[in-house]
Amino acid sequence: LRFDEKVRVVVFKSEVKGVFCAGADLKERAKMDDAEVAHFVKRLRNLMDEIAALPVPTIAAIDGYALGGGLELALACDLRVAASSAKMGLIETTRGLLPGAGGTQRLPRCVGIGLAKELIFTGRQIDGQQAFSMGLVNHTVPQNTEGDAAYQRAIVLAKEILPQAPFAVKMGKLAINRGMEVDIASGMAIEGMCYAQNIPTRDRQEGMAAFKEKRPPHFIGK
């Protein structure tokens, strides 16, 4: 996906009704020795980092349980949409573990340190409405009879992104992600570098021309 220029938005959804991602298989994990567990979790962390580093916007459609590594997968995405009945939680401490695939870092960046500590320390599960109220998800929707309400809302959200200039969106994502890790002065410099890369694009010229000609722009990602 990273190198496919035709990809504009990636939506993560489950094919299992009622479950987005239930996290690690603890029965499988119990058969591993300490070294195997460490290797497994490192690979999982690397996978989440790869998802987070995708250049295009990513949306997690949470239509059911997103627990442990399942919520870490959703946190690795840029945006999250949840059914109101969905259940989410970093439940690792209830199993003698702690989040190991980015949860301790991405959750506080999403909801703030205090809430993140409370959720991780207690291992509490919350529903979609609670997640929305604390800013963990961007949108919450009532579940439908098909069990894919969050996915349907994610598609609507993706379609809002699709008409926009692809390279500008990518640069916007890069500027936000990199800028969040540094002080604001350094962040401004990062924004400036990203903006400079966008200036010579054909899409920028098209955007200006479309505005002048009072017509919708036709962006090509170049």
TrEMBL record:
GO molecular function, a single term: enoyl-CoA hydratase activity
One BP term from GO: fatty acid beta-oxidation
Key words of the record: Lyase
GO cellular component terms attached to this protein's record: mitochondrion
Record's protein name: ECHD2 protein
Gene3D superfamilies (UniProt xref): 2-enoyl-CoA Hydratase, Chain A, domain 1, Lyase 2-enoyl-coa Hydratase, Chain A, domain 2
The keyword Lipid metabolism belongs to this UniProt entry's keyword annotation: no
A UniProt-annotated Pfam family: ECH_1
Family designation: Belongs to the enoyl-CoA hydratase/isomerase family.
